[in-house]
């Protein structure tokens, strides 16, 4: 009887295993290209479809592949690896399943190295964080082509996959017209590097200011990420906006910001770190918790321009609440 039960359980487990294997890697064509065999003929695949790659040994998610080319009535096709776990090796016999990342799923593990960067209609939940709120500002990641961010504090648009345009709406409310162009210079599995050129016009004093910002995002491991930012800007008058509103009289001013991010199992994130105003000799910072929904991000946090100022207000501590729609 025990032998019969063991045999039945083994047979049942084999059926489940076979059911999971919709596709299998049969050949590594190049570093990024895979030859894949379709095991389930009932599943239709088209160029552009996303497949999730599983280890055939541990069943761990290794990354995503995008279908490139497929021949009619053929069980074999070519796919390109879009992103993969740096600690995992994609190889022959790994199996794949068709994935719809336009919908929110509970079976996709939350890891920074499994965020999807390619141009697609993938839900923003699975994309890198581009905007981190009014105080934290932008990251090195860019919007995809024709993608928008809209919220009370920001309007941004992806001109191409490497260039985006953005406006600080809060500054505009306080009479400071502004715009910025951000360009991505380098992107790989380990880090992203971008630069931003921006300009502000102060209506009340009829003065302008130029701002240059460099962004560097680095993935430490699957759950931790670091963000570095340096900002150079010319002299500017005092204004009534919330962020960086003091007068700066020097021809060139410098601000440094270092933040660390942690991603939770539900794809929500925590970002915290210091901000250094070199000219004013102030050390402040921010901490924020981000609720990452399908296409809406919500921030709850606290920030300070100067930790030594133990008071509430623009020159001390501020409670941060922000949200934006990404579409």
Task: Characterize the structure shown.
The model is unreliable at 4-19 (pLDDT under 50). The longest helix has 19 residues, at 2-20. The radius of gyration is 24 Å and the shape is elongated. It is built from two helices and 18 strands. It folds into two domains: 2-99, Elongation Factor Tu (Ef-tu), domain 3; 127-326, Porin. With 327 residues, the chain is mainly beta. It starts with a helix and ends with a strand. Strand 1 (23-28) and strand 2 (33-38) form a beta hairpin. The strands form two sheets. The protein has a twelve-stranded antiparallel β-barrel. It has a six-stranded antiparallel β-barrel with strand order 1-2-5-4-3-6.
What tags apply to this protein structure?
327 residues; mainly beta; Elongation Factor Tu (Ef-tu), domain 3; Porin; twelve-stranded antiparallel β-barrel; 2 helices; 18 strands; 7% helix; 46% strand; elongated
Show the helix and strand layout.
Layout: H1 2-20, E1 23-28, E2 33-38, E3 50-54, E4 61-70, E5 76-84, E6 95-99, E7 148-150, E8 154-158, E9 163-168, H2 169-173, E10 176-187, E11 191-202, E12 207-219, E13 224-233, E14 253-263, E15 269-277, E16 282-292, E17 296-304, E18 317-326
């Amino acid at each position: 009887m025990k032998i019969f039960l063991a045999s039945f359980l083994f047979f049942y487990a084999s059926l489940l295993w076979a059911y999971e294997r919709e596709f299998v890697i049969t050949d590594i064509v190049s570093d990024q290209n895979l030859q894949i065999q379709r095991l389930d003929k009932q599943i239709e695949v088209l160029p552009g479809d996303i497949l999730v790659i599983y280890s055939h040994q541990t069943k761990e998610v290794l990354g995503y592949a995008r279908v490139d080319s497929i021949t009619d009535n053929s069980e074999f096709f070519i796919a390109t690896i879009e992103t993969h776990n740096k600690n995992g090796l994609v190889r022959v016999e790994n199996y794949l399943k068709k994935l719809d990342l336009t919908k929110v799923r509970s079976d996709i593990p939350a890891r920074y190295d499994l965020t999807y960067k390619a141009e697609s209609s993938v839900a923003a939940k699975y994309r890198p964080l581009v905007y981190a709120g009014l105080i934290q500002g932008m990251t090195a990641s860019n919007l995809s082509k024709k993608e928008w961010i809209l919220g009370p504090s920001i309007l941004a648009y992806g001109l191409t996959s490497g260039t985006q345009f953005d406006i600080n709406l809060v500054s505009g409310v306080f009479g400071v017209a502004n715009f910025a162009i951000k360009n991505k210079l380098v992107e790989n599995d380990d880090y992203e590097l971008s630069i931003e050129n921006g300009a502000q016009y102060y209506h009340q004093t009829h003065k302008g200011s130029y701002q240059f910002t460099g962004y560097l995002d680095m993935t430490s491991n699957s759950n931790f990420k670091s963000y570095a930012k340096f900002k150079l800007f010319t002299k500017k008058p005092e204004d009534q906006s919330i962020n960086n509103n003091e007068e700066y009289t020097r021809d060139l001013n410098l601000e440094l910001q270092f933040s660390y991010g942690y991603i939770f199992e539900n794809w929500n994130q925590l970002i915290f770190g210091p901000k250094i105003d070199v000219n004013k000799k102030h050390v402040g910072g921010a901490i924020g918790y981000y609720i990452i929904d399908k296409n809406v991000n919500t921030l709850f946090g606290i920030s300070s321009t100067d930790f030594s100022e133990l008071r509430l207000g623009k020159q001390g501590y501020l409670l941060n609440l922000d949200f934006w729609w990404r579409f």
